[in-house]
Design goal:
The protein has a single domain (9-386), classed as Metal-dependent hydrolases (TIM Barrel, Alpha-Beta Barrel). 38% of the residues lie in helices and 11% in strands. It has helices at 9-16, 26-31, 57-63, 79-82, 89-92, 94-100, 105-121, 139-146, 170-178, 224-236, 247-257, 282-290, 301-304, 313-327, 355-363, 368-386; strands at 19-24, 65-72, 133-135, 154-161, 183-185, 239-241, 264-268, 294-297, 332-334. Strands 1, 2, 3, 4, 5 and 6 form a six-stranded parallel beta sheet that branches.
C-alpha cells in the first residue's frame, strides 16, 4: 500500500491524530469464535464474511488506532425466529449455543466483557514483548494510557449494544457502568424493555422469507422504562447511544436530554443521502450537535448509499462532508462497526486500511486540524465531557 503521494499524511495520521473508533466488535471474535487477537493470520476478506477478523490487535496498530470503543452484544432470541436454520446451531455449535441462549442477557454480556478483558490482558506482541492493548475502565485510566506516548497500546473501552442487556433492571445498568461501560446503545435488532428499533436487515439477507422484520414498527418509540433509563444514564454519566432507535424514540431522547449531556449516534449514515429510518435527518444531526455530542459515520455501504455498491470510501467521505455542513466540524466522528457481522466497503475493509481515509480527506481539501477532529478529537472531547459521574 503506497501513501507517499502526500508527504504529510503519515505524520498527520500516526502522530498528530488520536484515532478513535466509536463502535467496533472485536469481542465477537473472542467470545463466539474463541480467537486469539494477537494472531496475525486471520483472514480479512472483501466480501461479507462473518468469519473475517477486521479489528485484531495487529490490524488496529497498523491502522494507527489509539482508542477503540469495544462493543459487546448478547445475541437476541428473536433472531432465531427471523432465521429458521439458526436453532440448529445447538447441534453444530453447542458451546456457543449454551453460552448465548437459555440464561439472562445480563449474564451473557458480563461473560463477554470478562472474556474481552482476558484477551486484552494477554495482548502481548511476541515480537516486542509489549502489550498491544490496554483496558481503560474510566476517564483517568484512559488519560493514563494516552500519556504513554506514541508507542502506547490501543486503549480499549467497554460498551454494550442493545438495552435488552440490562434485562429491565436499572441496577443492572448501574452495574455495567461501574465495571467501566462507557455507553449503552439503547436499541438493536428487536424490541426490548426500553425502546423499539428500526428495521435492521439488509435486503441481501431477505431470502426464503427470512429476516423480514415482521414485528418492527418504526412509528413506535421510547417506552416508560426507557425514559427512566435515559434519566439514569444522564445521572451516572453513561453516554447514550441512539443508534438503531426508531425516529420517534430518538426524538423523545433529544427532548429528555436536551443539553444536559452529550448524545452519541455511534454508527449511522445521513438520511439526506440514503433515506432509511435508521439514518439521521438534518434536524437530528443539529440536535446532537447542540447537546455537545458526536455522530459517527458507519463503514457499511448498505446504510451509507441509496443503491449499494461494493466500494464505499466515496460515500464515507460524502457522509462526513454532509455531517460537517449540517452539524459542524466539532460533532463528526468515525464508528466503523467492524466485526459486527457487517459488510464494510471493499476499499476500506479492516482497521489496517484506515490511513486511506486520511489520504482521501487530505485530497479533498480538509485541513489537518479538521482531520484530527474527525478522527478522534471530537470523540475524545465527548468522553471527557460525558463519561463519569457528575
Amino acid at each position: 500500500m503506497d501513501f507517499d503521494q502526500n508527504p504529510d499524511w503519515q505524520k498527520l495520521h500516526f502522530q498528530d491524530s488520536t484515532l478513535f473508533d466509536l463502535h467496533a466488535h472485536p469481542g465477537f471474535n473472542v467470545s463466539l469464535f474463541n480467537r486469539v487477537l494477537t494472531n496475525r493470520f486471520f483472514p480479512s476478506t472483501r466480501a461479507f464474511d462473518p468469519f473475517s477478523v477486521r479489528t485484531d490487535y495487529h490490524r488496529l496498530k497498523t491502522g494507527g488506532v489509539d482508542i477503540l470503543l469495544s462493543v459487546q452484544y448478547a445475541p437476541e432470541k428473536g433472531i432465531l425466529i427471523e432465521c429458521p436454520p439458526l436453532p440448529y446451531l445447538r447441534f453444530f455449535m453447542p458451546r456457543i449455543w449454551k453460552k448465548i441462549y437459555g440464561r439472562p442477557y445480563f449474564d451473557v454480556v458480563n461473560e463477554m466483557l470478562d472474556e474481552m478483558e482476558n484477551s486484552i490482558a494477554g495482548s502481548i506482541d511476541p515480537g516486542t514483548g509489549k502489550p498491544m492493548a490496554k483496558l481503560a475502565r474510566s476517564l483517568p485510566e484512559l488519560e493514563a494510557v494516552l500519556a504513554q506516548g506514541p508507542d502506547r497500546p490501543v486503549a480499549f473501552i467497554h460498551c454494550v449494544e442493545g438495552g435488552h442487556a440490562i434485562d429491565g433492571k436499572l441496577e443492572n445498568l448501574e452495574a455495567l457502568f461501574n465495571r467501566g461501560v462507557a455507553y449503552l446503545t439503547l436499541a438493536h435488532f428487536f424490541e426490548n424493555e426500553i425502546v423499539h428499533p428500526c428495521f435492521p436487515w439488509p435486503e441481501k439477507l431477505q431470502k426464503f422469507d427470512w429476516f423480514q422484520g415482521k414485528s418492527n414498527n418504526v412509528a413506535l418509540g421510547l417506552k416508560p422504562f426507557g425514559e427512566q433509563v435515559v434519566e439514569k444514564m444522564v445521572e451516572l454519566g453513561m453516554l447514550i447511544d441512539i443508534s438503531h432507535c426508531t425516529p420517534p424514540a430518538r426524538a423523545r431522547i433529544y427532548e429528555i436530554v436536551g443539553k444536559r449531556a452529550p448524545l452519541l449516534a455511534s454508527h449511522v449514515g445521513a438520511f439526506e443521502i440514503n433515506p432509511d429510518p435508521y439514518n439521521l435527518k438534518d434536524w437530528e444531526i443539529k440536535k446532537i450537535a447542540e447537546s455537545g455530542g458526536v455522530v459517527g459515520v458507519i463503514f457499511m455501504n448498505y446504510w451509507l448509499m441509496p443503491h449499494e455498491t461494493e466500494r464505499g470510501l466515496n460515500f464515507v467521505s460524502r457522509t462526513i462532508d454532509h455531517f460537517i455542513k449540517v452539524g459542524g466540524i466539532d460533532h463528526v466522528g468515525i464508528g466503523s462497526d467492524f466485526d459486527g457481522f457487517t459488510d464494510p466497503p471493499d476499499d476500506l475493509k479492516d482497521a489496517s486500511e484506515l490511513p486511506k481515509l486520511t489520504q482521501r480527506l487530505l485530497a479533498e481539501g480538509y485541513s489537518p486540524e479538521m482531520i484530527t477532529k474527525i478522527w478522534g478529537g471530537n470523540g475524545l472531547r465527548v468522553l471527557r465531557e460525558g463519561w463519569g459521574r457528575r
